[in-house]
Amino acid sequence: MKVFMTGGSGYVGRATIEALVRRGIEVAALVRSDASDRVVTGLGASAVRGELTDVAVLREAARAADGVLHLAQYAGTDVAEVDRAAAEAMQDGAGARPYVHTGGVWIYGDTAGVVDEDAPLNPPRLTAWRLENEKRVLARAATGERPVVVMPGPVYGRSGGLIETFYAAPGREAGAVPVVGDGSNHWSLVHVEDLAELYVLALAAPAGSVYAGVSDQNPTALQISEALSRAMGRPGAIRRLTIDEATKEMGPIAEAFALDQQFTGARARGQLGWNPVRLDPLTELAAARPDQGPAAR
To answer: Contact at 8 Å (CB) between 278 and 284?
Structure first.
């Protein structure tokens, strides 16, 4: 089997290439620089030079593969348009072969307790653009294609990821870990290596499926911040921010950090046999070395 993927040189992408290669799957990864080329080839993948805006490259690479994983996200104000065009190009190339698209649980907004993929959608501004794009991706299941959407929670592990990047980066102002509000809101986490396994399994999922990429670990934001303060060597060094203060400091992502979300990954476990094994996020976060981990992508 040969898989074409975007985002292969990124944080989650690197773990996913490793998971694919371990299974003897050939991987071709989109790269836009010599540095990214070296990363993916060093992991055992071949490089396809291009950008997410190069729809002809995406279409042909998808056509030459047995399945497609779209993990990359464009860094620009026109992210919605670029993502939509890229997805359409890769789905055109993939045809009836598997196409796995990356979403995120933030599009559900606050949840009332523990929920699954059928919960109501109420995204913060940061991710509202995903709704229409994912609807278009999944609509192709009605025409005989095989779209699947994986929706990760905040990803951690390997001393990298979204949490470490924003909460425990070296030189963080005031030397303390921020928490938005009182920190009683929950986050649905997933370890990068468990998430990589889900992407591989999703290539065999039924057309039109949606899976929450979460490992049923839903600690509070305050517990996460406390764990990361220990990773910084300053246990209990917490900065409490109002949503306005957090937005001024972090930008629109502050609204997402303030969400109260609890999810179950039972659907992926039941349908795909996914078996997350990294189930102690607070201990791992407390031992993280954010100065040595990979940058989040």
So the answer is: yes
